[in-house]
Amino acid sequence: MRAVAGAAARGLPLICLTTDLPTAPRLAYVGIDHTRAGCTAALVAAMAARGAGSALVLTSRLGYRAHRERLDGFEAGLRLHAPGMRLAGVLHREDDRDACYRLVSRALRHDAGVTAIYNTTGANRAVAAALRDANRAGSVAFVGHELTEASAALLREGVMTLAIDQAPELQARRSVEIMLKRLGMFEPEPPPADIPFTLHTRENA
Q1: Do β-strands 54-59 and 86-92 pair in parallel, antiparallel, or remain unpaired?
Q2: pLDDT for 180-192, tens place per residue?
Q3: Predicted structure pTM score
Q4: Residue 108 per-residue DSSP state
Q5: What average pLDDT does this structure show over 33-38?
Q6: What's the Rg (C-alpha) of the chain?
Q7: Which of 140, 138, 191 is nearest to 28 (CA)?
Q8: Rounded to whole angstroms, how far apart are CA atoms 97 and 122?
């Protein structure tokens, strides 16, 4: 935060991309509403699990605002859309595939009641591998983030239920437009900085 404040004090326009620093002197935040994304994940997971069983969350450092907001939204969404579902646990791990695989595998072994998994990190393949090895792929609702070649394949295979994509290309374009406007090099008013997230299933992956 000190680095951001120092740059702003030198007159450098700053844009927060993907995750926000709302108290920082930034020009704009360009990204999705992560809380709403987490709540959407809870809604889909609850529908797929028919509001029964328990939900497991795999997340990264909660000091990273985007992951904190996704988790908060998911917990709020479960309370709203599936009050009968319990939170089986919140697993914390960096995007280390092997470590994530071990964490999820252990949780699945210890709790046969897990009916949904929400992954806020980039370790979708690790979660999928853990589900396959536990013979629970397709029977546990699996919601993750980003539409990549790997997640698209998991969706088509039926291992992954939903991928929430934050449109990184659109984020980059909006950021450039806002910066050019700030520098007087962009005539039209830039579109809003709020980026809509998109939802992908096996039908549109």
Answers
A1: parallel
A2: 888 888 777 767 7
A3: 0.93
A4: H
A5: 97
A6: 19
A7: 191
A8: 9
Residue labelled with tokens 């326009």: 13
Listing DSSP states for 23-80 in one string gives TS--SEEEB--HHHHHHHHHHHHHHHTTT-SEEEEEE--TTSHHHHHHHHHHHHHHHH
Q: What is the pLDDT of residue 1?
A: 65
Task: State the fold for domain 34-165.
Answer: Rossmann fold (3.40.50)
Please state the domain extents for the chain: 2-32+167-197, 34-165
75 Cβ partners below 8 Å, 6+ apart? 38, 42, 87
Looking from the CA of 43 toward its CB, the CA atoms found within 13 Å total 9
Q: For 132-173, how does the pLDDT look when each residue is reduced to its tens digit (9 = 90+)?
A: 999 999 999 999 999 999 999 999 999 999 999 999 999 999
8: pLDDT strictly greater than 80: no
Q: Which two tokens stand for residue 152?
A: 């698209």
